[in-house]
Amino acid sequence: MLGPETANSPNADDLNTLYWVMLIVGIALVLAINAALIALVVRYRAERGRRARRLSSRRPAQMLVGGAFAGLAAMIFALAVIVTDSASEAEKSGPEGLQASMLRTAQRNVEPPALGEGDAEPLVVNASGQQWLWRYEYPDGTFSYYELVVPVDTTVILKLGSTDVVHRWWVPGLSGKFDAVPGQSNQTWFKAEETGTFDGQSYQYSGASYAVMRTRVRVVGVAEYEAWLEQTATDIQEAQTFVQEQVAKDSRLANPAGGDSTEAPK
Q1: Per-residue pLDDT averaged across 127-138, rounded?
Q2: How many CB atoms lie under 10 A from the CB of residue 13?
Q3: Of 236, 232, 239, which Cα lies nearest the Cα of 218?
Q4: Could you tell me the CA-to-CA distances from 59 to 56, 64, 115, 136 in Å, in that order?
Q5: Is the bond preceding 20 in cis, omega lying within 30 degrees of 0?
Q6: What tens digit of pLDDT does each residue of 18-45 get?
Q7: 127: part of which helix (H) or strand (E)?
């Protein structure tokens, strides 16, 4: 695949544009340099009965070529800075997005959107990398593993952390690559413009099984997201209650008299 996946988030679209610009500039440079080399070889090559002509150039020509390359490098650098800075500024959630109840965006890598009256707040999700899976925690305390479920047309700020080693979160089409570093704060953002499923994986070596450290972002409608969040919270509560009941039951079976189950040696 020559190009990146189709962008489904504004920041991913900016990065894709930068990719194509750099690719076109790189191809143009390769063609221009090789064309110049071929022209020089043809013009100054040796022929039967004639020695090869000596190639010489004046200082103004060298300065012109050097200045052209320096100017091109400066333009590419400026473009990269502008695009990456623009991609780091989180946009406002759209009119079809989720009105999140919490706003926690005081981090260093992403500028939260300036909210006006009636604007939708971003949805903040904590993403914790560990060998070798991702854990996502939502504002109400609900959590999920591997799959991140978010509403469409909503700005999602993903706060990245790690419990062990450095992991790298990347879901092509939604965001760039960002590291989750133990003891440090880092984050990225995206705003999915369409519903669908987007797969990603870790692109940082984090141990023997890092290749299977995958993740998935499922973008759904707002009503479906709210229903999923409520059902997941219920399932988690039921599972915790079941475990607590089983632990209490096992404890009663192990110690039916209610005293110390261990006897003193006779």
Answers
A1: 91
A2: 15
A3: 232
A4: 10, 9, 56, 61
A5: no
A6: 777 888 888 888 888 888 888 877 777 7
A7: strand 123-130
